[in-house]
Amino acid sequence: MSHVVDHLVSAMNARDLAATMRCYSPQAVVVGPELQAEGLEEIAACHMHLFEGFPALRMTVWEKVVCGDLVMIEALASGAHGGPFLLAGGEVLQATGRAVNIRTCWVFTLADDLIVSQRVYYDQLEVYSQLGLRLPSTSESFD
Length: 143
What we know:
The chain has helices at 3-13, 17-21, 39-53, 124-130; strands at 24-32, 35-38, 58-67, 70-80, 85-86, 92-93, 99-111, 114-122. The chain is of the alpha+beta class. The chain has one domain: Nuclear Transport Factor 2, Chain: A. A six-stranded mixed β-sheet has the order 2-1-8-7-4-3. Strands 5-6 form a two-stranded antiparallel sheet. Strand 7 and strand 8 (114-122) form a beta hairpin.
């Protein structure tokens, strides 16, 4: 059953949105530090955003662990920032041309050979620093 995760990574590396979306259940949910996408339309929009912001991004899977319907991958996302990319707080960063190498962990729940849930974990500070940015500061006071 875990082959669908292999297909997802291959489709993403090929920038094949149709093949990428065939890996997800119509009711799938993707959650990450800056997003929550529910259903195929929202998930496709997230993948398009990633493809536009990092046109040559490549996922290299270091490790895959399978436990029943749960699959976890540890990977390296490598590429250059070549297009608009939405940052935390809603700001859009235009292409910087900077290279990124981001360690990430994705956790999938599968059903009927499709992804029904994907949780994405990575260090936002690592992304921001490689893009030459600072994390957004908060103006809230904790008095």
